[in-house]
């Protein structure tokens, strides 16, 4: 191939590749609406025809969705085929424990990568969410604690700079945040040492800030193992309580004592 035959990439391709990278990196999450075409073209410093062609390429790739009024959204279908079947599993306790086992593996690796790869922007974001968790703990606000907890973990996924980790976890965000919320709610209702949970998150946070990959991996794995152990204990306590309640209520299903004798007996064998 001669040098004269080399051509720069089409502007529309560059636009598509730029927006695609932002989507895959999680900077543009599913369901978010892009700026109107005129404003978006100005922001990207491209012509509207080039922008329109680039967006069309992303629609063809299934990354964008458009509406009749011209509005353009990041596709909600991203990760849907992975997420929807798992939502059914989450309806039972074993599904929730399976979710935590999965998280234990991913959290440890994401924390290790984050300690090694996090940019200053990543580190600032992780610290922001950890400080929010501290504040929520001081206030005893379980809803705020759960929200900050989820935000902290997603900041660590992003700081891993592994697109596969980030996208898989983003696709499961509904499940993961529900899992975090349920765990925190259980701890609150059963009055299980919330300071221990904060200390475990602090260990992960400090290891990442110290750029200690092995320490971050260990702290994240220990945190998830501790969470699983505590949640199993809570579940077993609840099951014992349910069993005891059922036994107490058994009389509601029986005839009055005077009518319990059988009117006929089975023939003797």
Please characterize this protein's 3D structure.
This protein has about 270 residues and is mostly helical. Helices cover about 70% and strands about 0% of the residues. A hairpin with a 5-residue loop joins strand 1 (about 65) and strand 2 (about 70-75). The protein starts with 10 loop residues before the first helix and ends in a 21-residue tail after the last helix. Residues about 1-10 have low confidence and may be disordered.
> Termini separation (Å)?
98 Å
Pairing-aware structural class of the strands and helices?
Answer: mainly alpha
Q: Please give the share of residues in helix.
A: 55-70%
CATH superfamily of the largest domain: GntR ligand-binding domain-like
User: In angstroms, what is the radius of gyration?
Assistant: 26 Å
At the first level of CATH, the class of the largest domain is Mainly Alpha
What's the SSE pattern?
HHHEEHHHHHHHH
Question: How would you sum up the major sheet?
Answer: 2 strands, antiparallel
CATH topology of the largest domain: Four Helix Bundle (Hemerythrin (Met), subunit A)
Residue-averaged pLDDT: 81
CATH architecture of the largest domain: Up-down Bundle
Shape: globular
* Domain module tally: 2
Which residue ranges are poorly predicted, with pLDDT under 50 across at least 5 consecutive positions? 1-8
Q: What share of the residues does DSSP label as strand, in percent?
A: under 5%
Number of helices: 11
Strand order of the largest sheet: 1-2
Report the count of strand segments.
Answer: 2
